[in-house]
Amino acid sequence: MMKLALHWQIAIGMTLGAFLGISLNIYGGTRNTVVQADKLPTTLTSLEIHDSSNHIKINWTTASGEEHSAIVDGTRKTPGAAATVDELRHTQPEAASWFHQFGRSTARVVGETSQLIGNLFLRLLQMVAVPLIITSLICGITGLGDAASLGSMFLRTILYYICTSAAAITIGLIAVNVFRPGITGDAAPAVQGTETGGQSLGTLLFDQVERMIPTNPIAAIADSHFLSIISFTLAFSIFAVIVGGKTLKAVRAAAEAGFEVMMAMTMAIIALAPLGVLCLMLFVTATQGPAVFKSLFWYLLTVIAALMTHALIVLPLILKFVARRDPIAYAKALSPALLTAFSSASSNGTLPLTLACVENRAGVDNRVSSFVLPLGATINMDGTALYEAVAVLFIGQLYHGAVLPLEQQLIVAITALLASIGAAGIPHAGLVMMIVILQAVGLPIEMQGIILAVDRVLDMFRTSVNVWSDSCGCAVVAALEQGSAKPSSVKTT
Ligand code: ASP
To answer: CA 407 to CA 62: how far, in whole Å?
Structure first.
């Protein structure tokens, strides 16, 4: 029997997951529950729960007769409501736990259960990530042979990161000024808030520099601090080259053996990607209803159109004219990683897959990919940079009822670039970093609540763009390295 190619298997898993999730959301997305007296928690005399995908209401009466309620409203039209169940877990943990125990709709129960299974797949990927990065990076650097090659590759990589992120932000700025989603759309009106304190951009970036010098490399490995791991492994490999001789041979042989085993493990895990992706898609679509998308339609459209422009026009042009690669064939080779990035919303989580695809399916030399990809997953985030710029300017439009002046937009652009460098490659990391940009232009951080409910979906898009840009970077740097009179190092598979 002919075996279906992996990217098709993953695409089918994704579509099936989305189809099942949407059907569940339509037919089993609503539930009204009146908890029977014999099941009530002892502190309550009544508990009623209404669950629909973007609106949850929990009403309860305490033993002393006080009436209370908690609301989750994804569209943020209800004042004081939480935007997501996660937010409710923080603000009213008891109500959230009653909801979990008694009131979830079938769609939510199935969705959250499939999320648990999807998370097992992500855990498998996380399991191989650190040893894969370390062995791969040691192989790559010790294979380069001399420090000068590393220096030139480093410069080219950083230049690529900066240029593509700047291009992404520019596209975002143009889109947000053309579509004006905060003025055109019918998103919830501005919530008045106060500008709050927090860490400054300087502090956050200095944190990153500190991360590059781990006081205890073993602890950094244990805590999966990618930047610390990369900088220590880089230093270790460079010094192995400096020591040279038998030592270098031994280090290289050990790393190669480890890398081979880790790659075999990664390939085995990749075979589970269709199921993992199905579960993650099912979760997102079963628990998110259409209402929230309607209220933020223009905002969603702006972000997605800008991301698409960058991913489908700018990066392919770079791929074609700088890397001299066929963009369609390259995207096909990368599709397992891109689809997993989409459904997991984590570029760090996808990293083992990205490495495997770039090397085994796209034929990029390990010496380039082992350097460009781990670093890129941490600091090169075109999708996130673009998203931050659009989201903050959208909030600015809502808050002021007008487009922000050009100087402010420039501040947003620069801070968005820096924030994307600081953001971790995990789900929703962009939201956390956005606080820095909001502060830089004096916008209240509470207004982030407006976009919270759709962040997961946009995270899926921007994470795929992040991974796509890192992967294109590999081809570009590999081509430039080859062009600078080095012996051919690109595998042809
Ligand atoms: N989820 C993104 C990533 O992993 C980061 C972000 O939240 O923008 O690349």
So the answer is: 53
